[in-house]
Write a sequence for this structure.
């Protein structure tokens, strides 16, 4: 992929050996068979196949990895992990790449980070996602008033079919709060 100065500066903050070492350890016995790629339902949209991404991780090609959108498009379906003949934790490795991009606050992944954080905030508050609140918060974080207009026709169709409601959620106790606190405590220990 291209060598842009801005991305090199962003990625320069990533200590390739330290950050990618656990991921390399997870996939070091990869035999490059391609089963992960053949199993992936999102492979058609990825710029690199999962097999090629694993090779880039093993070769420590950090810049190319973080220019890629392959790991962001992983839907954590676990097909690759279940079908891997070596039993490698490929879904966990994809998740680890997402975590690095999130921790390093790489601008290229800001939109994805905002999407997932708004989703989780809604689930934490209501015990399930409240679609109207979730999308309102997400679009507000993007700070671009034109983006919601692209999704307006879809939103209207979903409301007409009763799939989403514009009514405010019913106020209730936070049913999942103890689970979220437990996860936060576990993450602090890492």
């Amino acid at each position: 992929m291209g060598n842009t100065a801005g991305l090199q500066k962003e990625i320069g903050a990533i200590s390739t050996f330290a950050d990618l070492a656990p991921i390399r350890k997870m996939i070091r016995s990869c035999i490059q068979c391609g089963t992960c790629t053949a199993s992936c339902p999102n492979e058609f949209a990825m710029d690199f196949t999962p097999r090629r991404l694993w090779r880039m991780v093993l070769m420590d090609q950090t810049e190319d990895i973080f220019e890629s959108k392959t790991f962001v498009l992983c839907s954590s379906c676990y097909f690759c992990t279940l079908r891997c003949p070596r039993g490698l934790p490929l879904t966990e490795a994809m998740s680890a790449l997402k975590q690095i991009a999130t921790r390093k606050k790489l601008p290229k992944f800001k939109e994805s980070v905002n999407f997932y954080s708004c989703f989780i905030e809604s689930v934490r508050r209501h015990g399930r996602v409240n679609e109207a609140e979730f999308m309102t918060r997400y679009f507000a974080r993007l700070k671009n008033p034109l983006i919601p207009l692209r999704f307006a026709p879809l939103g209207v169709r979903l409301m007409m079919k009763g799939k989403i409601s514009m009514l405010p959620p019913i106020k209730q106790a936070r049913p999942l709060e103890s689970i979220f606190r437990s996860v936060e405590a576990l993450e602090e220990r890492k």
Summary: Residues 101 and 153 are 32 Å apart (CA to CA). The first helix runs from residue 5 to 12. The radius of gyration is 19 Å.
